[in-house]
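An instance follows:
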Amino acid sequence: MKKRLSRKETKEVIDILLRTYPDAKAELIFSNSFELLIATILSAQTTDVQVNKVTEKLFKEYKTPEDFLKLSEDELGEKIKSIGFYRNKSRNILATCRMLVEKYNSKVPDTIEELMKLPGVGRKTANVVISNAFGKAAIAVDTHVFRVSNRIGIASSDNVTDTEEQLMESIEENMWSKAHHLLIFHGRRICKARKPLCNECPLTEYCLYYKEITKDK
């Protein structure tokens, strides 16, 4: 069985996903680049729904890096306690806010390289921020994008770095950011981690995973 779809097949998959999820977009709620940065740091290994519950209150009271720096790690930890790994996230958020104030005039940088210098910010978070806050072409590979793209066959890799590179090769650049949201929507609604709903999936004609599990039937 082939390992990856062609660029033409990939485009057809993206077109189907566009028709299936015309409203696909970021599900974290934010009103500026700083809020998105903080929300994305919080979202690691936590659902966007849970993050939105926390940030709804948090962002009303703390709107700038300076506002957050009025808190101790323990105080911020108490406010985000319902989110996984809240102690580490509290530490990273305050360290990031300190760096934003000291090195970036309290502004969120708009390049992947500068964003990745911030504590708690990896490539995925940096891609989310430059794509959704600054409108730059990027594909952030989170757990859904990684799983779905490798299942379908848009990518064929066991790590996120190679997956991102393969997605950038296979998908037209002007669709990178949208494709990120489409793959997340598909992963949350149909191509689920433990039990994908293949009988409801519009991609079975192309999906290499589906062809593999049904080849002997």
About this structure: The mean pLDDT is 96.
